[in-house]
Design a protein that fits this description.
It is a single chain. The protein is of the alpha/beta class. It is built from 13 helices and 21 strands. Strands 2-1-3-4-5-6 form a six-stranded parallel beta sheet, sandwiched between helices. It has a five-stranded mixed β-barrel with strand order 17-18-19-21-20. A three-stranded parallel beta sheet has the order 7-10-13. Strand 3 (about 45-50), helix 2 and strand 4 (about 80-85) form a beta-alpha-beta unit. Helix 8 runs parallel beside helix 9 and helix 12 packs parallel to helix 13. The longest helix has 26 residues, at about 360-385. The mean pLDDT is about 90.
Length: about 450
């Protein structure tokens, strides 16, 4: 590659989970610190970072499609962008990307993106750069301080996974579970609040596996971190995801009943209602133990909204076992949930299992499951009508004077009024749909 003119603008395109969104924000911080500006909406960027996710089917092929579109658009505009591939696809298939996509200048895994500025210097010299090392969490020490934030901000507290669910690539692309130090997290939370955040969502592949020592040297879990962050006076809301049933503690359950700033929302993936399927998935819980956890959370925080994840059609799943999943959904009554057909991830144990199901079997099951989830989501929203709740405005709505924000239960709420992004507004919920609610402003609350 010949030397390249330094880029003046960049765009980070993130796919997948909230942790990827956090990583994308931090890569943007790194590039901004180099004097590169975010590209205006609708304009081509001179540097594009594809921050990839390996969870979904054909993730790698979608990356190559994006690379092709970027090259074509650059050729039409008279200048190809520098392209970096980051994230979990980069980690899993870095060598293949470098071999198959000569237009890519940089490949960087999720544990090495703090080296992006140095890799950019290599690319400007005409040298392709790749880094998919997985060092212990050192990247966070190299990241610039948070200087900007929206009203709702992400904060990664834990990375990696030791659970090795048989369908999941995360242990191979994100590494072993590791917790960031308590002091660093409190400091970053303080900076986010100073930069305008009034809601912080704590993130981790298994966020409730976080552990550390507080300022007094006492061992604490996620509930202790939440209690510490809740003391920040200008922080109004705390959320966390994604949790694993095995790592739920008594303290975390109690925190939901004791900390007003901790929102009444719980995302607790179950994946299946069949104990045999759960065992084949290497999930360390049963349907019954999961349901008992939900009961305990609801006892601590009546009215809590419960969200979950489901995989339909895991290898060998029978019709009767799928019916057990539907029974669990009926029992829980999810306020929302994510559900997907099983798709094999290369290198995972499930990919080599026998009795993979066809799409003709899985798709009707998924439709039935999603119909049950949508039914319960609508019922939860309808039960909210008549309540007056604080809504945090996140963006403008589709119509003039319309605003869109989130309720304490993470419902999307739209309403009219004279406001600004970041305002916390008291809103009466007056009409419910399956995916959002209409509200009427009651009174403004100072942000």
């Amino acid at each position: 590659m010949p030397p390249v003119t330094p880029p003046k603008t960049f765009r980070v395109k993130s796919f997948g989970c909230q942790m990827n969104a956090y990583d994308g924000e931090r890569m943007a911080d790194l590039l901004s610190a180099q004097g590169i500006a975010p590209a205006p909406e609708g304009e081509n960027a001179e540097l594009v970072v594809l921050n990839t996710c390996h969870i979904r089917e054909k993730a790698a092929e979608k990356v190559y499609s994006d690379i092709g579109r970027l090259v074509k658009a650059g050729d039409e505009a008279g200048r190809r962008p520098l392209i970096a591939v980051a994230g979990c696809v980069a980690q899993a298939e870095g060598e293949e990307i470098m071999s198959r996509a000569p237009a890519v200048s940089m490949v960087v895994g999720p544990q090495a993106y703090h080296r992006l500025p140095a890799m950019l210097e290599q690319a400007l010299r005409g040298e392709r750069a790749s880094d998919t090392d997985m060092p212990p969490i050192a990247k966070f020490d190299a990241l610039p301080a948070r200087r900007r934030s929206g009203p709702s901000a992400f904060l990664t507290v834990q990375e990696g996974c030791d659970k090795f669910c048989t369908y999941c690539v995360v242990p191979y692309t994100r590494g072993a579970e590791i917790s960031r130090p308590f002091k660093d997290l409190v400091t970053e939370a303080e900076k986010l609040v100073e930069a305008g955040a009034c809601e912080i969502t704590l993130l981790g592949q298994n966020v409730n596996a976080w552990s550390g020592e507080d300022q007094a040297g006492r061992a604490i879990g996620l509930d202790g971190l939440i209690r510490a962050i809740a003391k920040l006076p200008d922080l109004q809301r705390i959320r966390y995801m994604t949790s694993h049933p095995t790592d739920v503690t008594d303290g975390l359950i109690a925190a939901h009943g004791e900390i007003d700033k901790l929102m009444p929302f719980l995302h607790l993936p179950v994946q299946s209602g069949s104990d045999r399927v759960l065992k084949a998935m290497n999930r360390s819980h049963t349907a019954d133990s999961y349901l008992k956890l939900i009961e305990r959370f609801r006892a601590a925080r009546p009215g809590i909204a419960v969200s979950g994840d489901f995989i339909v059609g895991f290898p060998g799943e029978t019709e009767a076992e799928f019916e057990e999943t539907l029974q669990l959904v009926d029992t829980v009554g999810y306020a929302q949930a994510f559900s997907f057909n099983y798709s094999p991830r290369p290198g995972t144990p499930a990919a080599s299992m026998d009795n993979h199901l066809s799409a003709q079997v899985m798709q009707p099951r998924l439709q039935r499951l999603q119909a049950a989830i949508n039914r319960d989501q609508l019922a939860f929203n309808q039960a909210s009508v008549g309540k007056t709740v604080p809504v945090l405005i996140e963006r403008r709505g589709k119509l003039p004077g319309q605003w869109l924000g989130k309720s304490p239960w993470l419902q999307s709420v739209w309403f009219d009024g004279d406001h600004a992004i970041g305002d916390m507004v008291e809103v009466e919920l007056i009409e419910a749909g399956p995916n959002s609610l209409e509200g009427r402003k009651k009174m403004a609350v100072a942000a």
